[in-house]
Amino acid sequence: MRCFMISVTLGIWLLVGCGSSASTSGASDAGSKADASTSDVQAGDALASDTLPGDTSGGDSQGDTASLPLKWQGPCELDRRVGRFEVLQDAEYGSSVSGNVADRIDALQVLVAKESQGACKLWQRKAAVCTPGCTGSQQCVRNAGCQPFPAPVDVGKVTITGLVKPVVMTAKGANKDYFFTDFDADPYAAGSEIALSVSGNPTVAFGLDGYGVTPLSVPNKSGTLQKGKAFSLDWQPAAKVAGVLVHLSLNVDQHGLTPVTLTCDVEDTGHLEVPVALTDALLGYGVSGAATAWLQRQTVDSMPVSAAWESGCVELIVGSKVALQVLAQ
Question: What is the pLDDT of residues 156-181, one digit of tens each?
């Protein structure tokens, strides 16, 4: 059984229903973890593939797929996400576990979907406009008006099992951050089943699942983004596991007022090509500062929670991350 409840300011008790994990047939009890969205592009869509975790109908049908119980519900929609935890294998910058939860969404993290083609999308960070304007203690939330800024929540003790060493974290500092970096190398063994749970706070209870993905290997980490040309990447593919995708994030406008990020979520085939239409559109929004880009093999799990003013969502990402060097021309 899985559930989440959280108490926030003014002593309000917030609760969402409990349910069991989804089965391989896709059946679940009412109130179980949120289903991933497969709708067309719209504001608030999650930064993830339109393919549900475990659904390989949209990918390459060749090769074996590991037989695992379907546990991963995919990412939160951006206009519902109030918390995220990450378990990352990163050979260059070091492996880590991190996360935090807030009592409501951060409006600036709700990107607006601009264009989509295939498995790739363009997302724009654009502030909402409220009339009349909000006070200094409020944020303008699209379709919700002026709301208080999010406040961090101490969810108690966070335990993650399935890693190479026990990880038990408590909230640190004013931002109630959770983090653990004491790994000698990889944080998990490939193929391990990973689970996150919280305890110690009587007002909070939730659990999320993940999978130890094979470390990502990218032979050529450099690339050039040029107008009129598709952008492609190659990596060493791993044995196919239902629900494991490869995620690309690319931003070339670091100093723009409304920067746009390109994301793609594809099957682990070893090759990704961003269509010319999207590379041209991305460059057309502006180029400033050094581009930031990374590729990550990952699983994403999520479940609904209650936020202060509307239902929210928390998620767990387990991934292997490689930073890329991309030159925009």
Answer: 999 999 999 999 999 999 999 999 99
- 232 class by beta-carbon count within 10 Å (0-12 exposed, 13-18 middle, 19+ buried): exposed
- Beta-ladder partners of 163: none
Contact criterion met (CB below 8 Å) for 219 and 262: no
272/249 Cα distance (integer angstroms): 12
Bridge partners of residue 98, in order along the sequence: 86, 179
Alpha helix locations (H) across the chain? 276-284
Query: CA torsion sign, 229 to 235 to 241 to 247?
Result: negative
**pTM score of the predicted model:** 0.79
Note the pLDDT tens digit of each residue in 176-192.
Answer: 999 999 999 999 999 99
Domain boundaries, the chain: 41-328
Total residue length of the chain? 329
For residues 49-88, one letter each, b for 16 or more C-beta atoms within 10 angstroms of the residue's C-beta and e for the rest, the string is bbbbbbbbeebeeeeeeeebebbbbbbbbbbbbbbbbbbb
Cα pseudo-dihedral 143, 149, 151, 152, rounded to 10: 80
